[in-house]
Description:
- By secondary structure, the chain is an alpha/beta fold.
- The chain has 14 helices and 22 strands.
- The longest helix has 13 residues.
Amino acid sequence: MRLKADPGNLRGEVSINLPGSKSIHNRLLIIQKLSGGKVDISGNSQSEDTKFLNSALNHSSREMFMGEGGTALRFGLAWAAITPGERVIDGSKRLRERPIRELVEVLNDLGADIKSVNGDRKLPLLVKGRKLEGGKARMTQNISSQFISALLMIAPYTKKGISIELPNNQVSMPYIRMTVELMKRAGAKLSESGSEIVVHPAGYKPSSIQVEKDWSSASYFFEWVLFNENLQIELPGLSLESVQGDAQIVQPFKILGVEAREENGSIVVRKAEGSEIKEMDFLEVPDMAQSLAVAAAGIQKRIRLTGLQTLRVKETDRISALKSELLKVGVQCSSTDSSLEIESFKDPDPNVSIKTFRDHRMAMAFAPLASKLGEIEIQDPSVVAKSFPDYWNEIQKLGVEIIKI
């Protein structure tokens, strides 16, 4: 797909229809299923990940195929472990490479019966669901927040409940806080003391919970505004008081030169005066690193992004992917296992073609560079279906021309 835009000259006041948050919806699907339907969900995400999870939870087949969704896999595995029946859980080639061993070990310690079909501690997994004993979950340092969320959500239906002592410097803490808040809204009984979370075996209660619009999808439109002085974007259904940790994106984009204000049930995004900063930490919101990296590169801002240790094991190795594709647009970067530094700038390659590596965020984060280069090609554009199926339709509202090739 080739995108064309008059460099820096997209203008007007545009309203964008964001998808519902797949992070919220996926959690609510697990909570709803465990509750026996007592929890009512309003709104939805329409993401590919959510569709895979919903299908796996409600299909009578022994096979649970999770596509490429990390949350679908981790949450679905925990649900299968505590739900009577025998199931085989599998996913795409990339999902088979993503970490799961630590979650399997913790679940088995709590009474689950999970084995690797091939004996290699990876997918596919054979799960024999049963009532779990529960107890204290022993966590390792820097364990995925998705692992912790999966354990928390099934805890109300274990015999003893589950207590978790969060590791020091736990990554992606806002996602764990989101899980706790949604569980409370669904009537779960939790207590927190210091770094320990205790979930009591009291089940979920009848409740109705809304799927918020997705803050991570909003971040790409902050980029479009940053690159276009006279463009104003309205994002209906978003709130600065969101349960989503990715709402934190407002502050780093303000530093780069975009302001976001809440007006009449929407977030309105406008160009603003930026300020200086040499380093940004993404330990809490690693999924936002790609948007900020491309945004900073687009305005030729030298900056170091830290707290990226989980990016190596996402849909792709996102640190390597960012380095290789930013180089095509003339941006030289250096990296470590947990950081990326934008160092220097030169002329971009002619006819820039961005490889997405089967990663939805690569496609959506790089697309706004059409407003810097005038034209950019995005390979495998269908990957956006993972979280934002209508992304290409929505950016045409900005005045972007899309040519399918």
